[in-house]
Amino acid sequence: MTTPAAVLAELAMLRKQNALQAQRLQRMGVERKQQRVERMIDKALLDALALITVHVGGGCIDRDTAPLPQRRWAHAVALLRLAGLAHGRTVTLQLAQTPQETLQRLERAATLAKAQPWQWAKHMPAYNRPRGLQGPR
Description:
Distance between the termini: 53 Å
Shape: elongated
Largest sheet: 2 strands, antiparallel
Oligomer: single chain
Number of strands: 2
Order of helices and strands: HHEEHH
């Protein structure tokens, strides 16, 4: 037979374990969201490089003619805008003096976007902005 004190002690221990597990699950959820955003930014970096390649080859990178789905195009152009390489509503690329400098600016923008995703998200239209990237609260 267990005493009321033993039952209360076991209940307190179970509550503590439950609280620790809830904190761990919450941390994992935040980490998963961060990893998802980082994967999106990595894809956007590759897509931005593809758009630059098409532009340098003389192709058009407007939304209608770009070889990317709408959302991925918007993410890539947002990264180009964050890097200072794209301007205007109709996307106009202004590449750096050298390809290495262009690549460095794009990589710096990707690093900034991973650290502060809302900086990247503010350069894309609201309908293409992921729900979790509405800005700091």
